[in-house]
Structure formats: C-alpha cells, structure tokens
Design a protein that fits this description.
337 residues, alpha/beta, five-stranded mixed beta barrel, 22% strand
C-alpha cells in the first residue's frame, strides 16, 4: 500500500525520532588531519599524560579506538585542548604502530597480557647483589620478555658493597649482555649514575626489577630533576621490598644527547604466558642458523634438536646453548625455584 503520493517531497516523509539525539548515526569517522603528535608519559586511572611539543597535556582515549589501550612510550595523535593548562583535556584519536613491546602476564597461567612499555629500545634489569638476595629466575624471565619484545637487555647490579658480582656475572657471561655494577655510596656521589647513563644516551630504556633493589633510587640519580619517592625498606622475613612506584613514568634523560628513562613499578612475578618460544631464538644468531635441521615445533631441548650437532661441530659455544635452554625452560619454573 503506497503511503505517499507520486510527487512526495521531504516534508511528507515521516522521520522516526532518535531517542539519543537528533543527529543520525554514521559509520564515517573524522580523519583528524589536524591532530598533533605526542608521546605518552604516564597513565593513571584513565587519564593519559602526553608530551606535546614541550608541554604536558592530559588526555583521554577516544571512543573510536575501542579496546586498544595507550601505554607509556606510545606515539599518539591528539585533538582538543592541547594547551596543557589546569583542567584542560584532550582526546587521543590515533595510536601509532609500535616498534617494540614489553609485555608480561600476572602468572604463567594468566592468558591476559599487560603491555608495560611501548617503543623502548632497551630493558635495564635492576637486581641487588644482596638485601634482597638476587633472583636469577626472575632475571631469566625478564631476559625472555626482552628478547621476545625486541628490546636489548642491560644488567644493572646494585649494592656491590654488600656482595661481589662475580657469581652472577658468570651465570650470564655466555649471553654477552652489557652490565653495570654499582654500590650504594656511588649512587650519591654520581659515579654510578654516570656509568649507567653512558648506556642510555639517545635511547628509550625501561627499568624493571623487584621491590627493594634500588631501582627508583637509581632513576632519581639519573634524572635528579624528577625525584620519585624512593623504595621502602626490605622485609626482614620475606627479603622483599615494598612497592613505592605505582605507575610507569617516562622521564627525559636530559643533556645534549637525550634519551628517556621509564621507571616501572616493582615486580614480584613476571608471567610469560604470552611468549612464543620460537621468537626467543632470534636473540641467539649464532644458534639460530643451526635450527634448519630441527623438527617442526622443536622446543630446542629434545633428543632430535639439531642444535646439539651444530654445537658439537664447533659453530657455537656450548655455554650459549645451555643459556638458551635455561631461558626457554623458565616458563616451567617459578621465580623462587
């Protein structure tokens, strides 16, 4: 049945009112071609602080981004109030492609991965030589996460005045990982900070370590203009410290050569549920070439693994193969084992 005549005009057409407003829905989204570029400095309960040019701008994620979250280190595009003034608020409308990602899960059985830092070049693994005692299994897990995420590792050993570093360095010698050894006194006279800073110039470095190792104290020494609350005491019973850094924060290293330091909250576990073991081998180029003869889905720690013959033929150091297998098996072991 025809409701309207042959010559119906727009005034004759009934439009059903939109209960949520008069503007009709559309799948077309604005392109935001005038959006400003920025970098995420920290995220706190939905408020995202970004560096836009030379000012800090507080923003929220735009609805069109869906579930994609912005994390520290992300390159983003923003619109809205970019003045950085009090009570100003901008919107993040785009999140750029990430060159690297440091991820962790709460436990090996937890399928939900958390992105800690994006676009970092380096992962500084901070561990104390005593008070609290070093935890090699946690160091192994951080190394696996670094290799998997495309970050170069750096070992920073603190409190050398309480214990020598030789045993721990011997454990990781075959991995050829750069390292810096510091003492508590050197953190205050500037010597330790200068040695660590030499590895950081021109790079974005994420600092990770369990509580009480002196990570935030070291970051304060590296970036004295941005003092964060120092780590708390170490529990005499558990040998672990209190969490005093509650959110990741990117800080400019300063100086002519530049660089960024990302301080992260202290960790007591580092789950690796998300890690694909096949990517860890990429950090061992001398062994990777020997995997051509491995069976499909080889774990590189089984009788048919071709790496044994590769090492026996003299193509790689046996200590390197041992280190690789130790790292690959770390998912089956807890940090305290």
């Amino acid at each position: 049945m025809r409701r309207y005549g042959r010559n119906a005009d727009e005034d004759d057409i009934r439009v059903r009112p939109n209960r949520k407003g008069n503007r009709p829905r559309t799948s077309i989204r604005p392109k935001h071609e005038d959006a400003a570029d920025g970098m995420v400095l920290t995220v706190d309960r939905g408020r995202i602080t970004c560096l836009v040019e030379d000012r800090a701008v507080v923003a929220m994620k735009a609805r069109e981004l869906g579930r994609k979250a912005a994390v520290v280190g992300d390159r983003v595009s923003l619109v809205g109030d970019l003045s950085g003034g009090k009570d100003s608020l901008a919107r993040i409308v785009r999140i750029g492609e990430r060159s690297s990602v440091l991820r962790r899960t709460a436990d090996d059985d937890d399928p939900y991965e958390r992105v800690v830092v994006a676009n970092a070049d380096q992962l500084a693994i901070v561990t104390a030589l005593a008070d609290p005692e070093p935890r090699p299994r946690l160091i192994d897990r951080c190394l696996v996460a670094a290799f998997d995420g495309g970050l170069e590792p750096l070992l920073v050993l603190t409190k050398s005045d309480l214990a020598p570093p030789s045993a721990l360095l011997e454990l990781y010698g075959a991995l050829d990982i750069p390292y810096v050894v510091t003492s508590r006194e050197e953190l205050y006279d500037g010597g330790a900070a200068d040695r660590v800073r030499a590895h950081l110039w021109g790079r974005t470095t994420a600092f990770v370590g369990h509580s009480g190792v002196g990570k935030t104290t070291l970051v304060n020494a590296l970036v004295p203009e941005e003092q964060r609350r120092s780590t708390g005491h170490v529990n005499a019973v558990t040998g672990r410290g209190r969490h005093t850094t509650t959110s990741a924060l990117a800080l400019p290293l300063g100086g002519d050569r530049g660089g960024w330091v990302v301080d992260t909250p202290g960790v007591r576990s580092f789950g690796l549920h998300h890690v694909d073991p096949s990517r860890v081998i990429n950090a061992f180029p001398d062994l990777e070439r020997g995997t051509d003869g491995c069976p499909r889905a080889c774990s590189h720690d089984e009788p048919d693994c071709a790496l044994d013959a590769w090492v026996e033929a003299g193509h790689a150091d046996p200590a390197r193969l041992y280190s690789l297998r130790r790292l690959l098996s770390t998912r089956e072991r807890r940090e305290g084992d």
